[in-house]
Design brief:
There is one protein chain. By secondary structure, the chain is α/β, with parallel strands linked by helices. It has one domain (5-244): Aldolase class I (TIM Barrel, Alpha-Beta Barrel), CATH 3.20.20.70. It contains ten helices and eight strands. The protein is globular. It binds phosphoenolpyruvate (PEP). Phosphoenolpyruvate is lined by residues 9, 11, 164, 169-170, 206-209, 227-231. Phosphoenolpyruvate (PEP) binds at residues 9, 11, 164, 169-170, 206-209, 227-231.
Length: 246
């Protein structure tokens, strides 16, 4: 059986005092049966690593460079993230794809670099509302995942996938458990054509997940936990989502 995983995506939120408060409340609320991690803004990784060391809650970053090092002003390398003990890094979040024009291939290259430094990439895929309404959901997510499958080849089983319909992110609109399950099953079948380990891989749902809808989503056979944005900034709400995954 796959152990559930719940990952908080703080996005570009927080400050040192508020982060310390949030983490203290989270540590007090745990542990959970599910694995739990937070992906935080890079400047806070040192603080977060110190705070969470030995507590069972993992941490990670929200992006990494596809390059090892060099003249890439503003970028953060996977090697740097590894130095801070990151277990995870998000790649291909829809906000990065939309605001930084990240291509499917760049996302795949980032995933490859993360794995080279023993950081698990959480590869985000998902369709926009226009794509869903045009009936293109399956084709879009398959195209996004396909680039990663081809780039990682036999290492594909080492990633986590997050299905995040763009129309559900930060909008308060959640995919129904059935809508999400249909896409998760499709993604697992696609992974299954590439690796014998698809049944052990985690596919997370993200998009306005909250304490009151998490249990129904996590009850679906191919939903292995959640990638949680807004609700991960509220300790009690995030802790309840982690509990729902238990
Ligand atoms: C996200 O940013 O990954 C996300 C799922 O956001 P929210 O939960 O706020 O919709």
């Amino acid at each position: 059986m796959r152990r559930k995983l719940v990952v908080g995506n703080w996005k570009m939120n927080g400050n040192r005092a508020a982060n310390a408060e949030l983490l203290a409340a989270l540590k007090a609320a745990g542990p959970w049966a599910a694995e739990v991690a937070v992906c935080v803004p890079s400047p806070y990784l040192g603080d977060v690593a110190l705070s969470l060391q030995g507590d069972g809650i993992g941490w990670g970053a929200q992006d990494c460079s596809a390059f090892e090092s060099g003249a890439y002003t503003g970028e953060v390398s996977a090697l740097m993230l590894a130095e801070f003990g990151c277990r995870y890094v998000l790649v291909g979040h829809s906000e990065r794809r939309a605001y930084h024009a990240e291509s499917d291939q760049l996302v795949a290259d980032k995933a490859k670099t993360a794995l080279a430094h023993r950081i698990t990439p959480i590869v985000c895929v998902g369709e926009t509302l226009a794509e869903r309404e045009a009936g293109h959901t399956d084709a879009v997510v398959k195209r996004q995942l396909s680039a990663v499958i081809h780039t990682l080849a036999h290492c594909i089983s080492q990633i986590v996938v997050a299905y995040e319909p763009v129309w559900a992110i930060g909008t308060g609109k959640t995919a129904t458990p059935e809508q999400a399950q249909a896409v998760h099953a499709l993604l697992r079948a696609q992974l299954g054509a590439a690796t014998a380990h698809a049944g052990e891989m985690k596919i997370l749902y993200g998009g306005s997940a909250k304490a009151d809808n998490a249990a129904a989503l996590f009850a679906q056979p191919d939903i292995d936990g959640g990638l949680v944005g807004g609700a991960s900034l509220k300790a009690a709400e995030f802790a309840a989502i982690c509990r729902a995954a238990g």
